Amino acid sequence: MTHETWLAIFFNNHFAGLGNSLLSLAGQKATNPAEPWADFMVMQILVAILMVAILLAVRSSLSVEKPGKLQHIFELIHSFITETSHEQVGHEGHKHVLLFETLFIFLLLANLIGLIPGFMSPTQAIYVPLGCALVAFLYYNYVGLRKDAGGYLKHFLGPIPVLAPLMIPIEIISHIARPLSLTIRLFANMYAGEQVTLVFLSLTYLVAPVIFMGLHVFVSVLQAYIFVLMTMIYVAGAVAEEH
User: Fold this and answer.
1) Could you tell me the residue ranges of all domains in the chain?
2) Is the pLDDT of residue 139 over 80?
């Protein structure tokens, strides 16, 4: 297995046993037991650690009178996600802000970390977008069933009982397509963006890389937002009074 990041090499040199144990717990087996840690695995661990560290730093320096720059940034993110959640989900939007914000910050950091030399964006490996999409899928189904299981399941039958045999498979396929859509959209955009940036970095080292790195930042923010926005829409549909 060829690794692009020094962090994966470090993990494989020092924590190969742990990696194999974790894979075994998940019912998986490494192709090469000496190198169980893939790049996307160690990078998403790093992103999670960075995320926790940043949030702890913000919490420790919270101030009403003299808020720092980091506090301003996160207050902006919180305000934006809260307002968008209220617009999409309605009066119950505040109940789901924790998930929306967590997904947004994780995906944003995961998308942007690839700009740092020696690192890669874990979202350019399909497993990470798929994992986030499954979280969104399980969450909106859970909140729909928790609020009104009968009403939520009833919408799979269609508007009139006679259409139920036709509507049930259509609705099931429609719901299965949602995590696939979330996964492919995020993965394809981040993978393509990463490859384009790498190509231009290899060709020139001044103007073009700056332009494409700026484009990569824009795509990173946009894709994190779209992923969370689609999750909000799915949650809104699940908790709607009339399904």
Assistant:
1) 38-239
2) yes
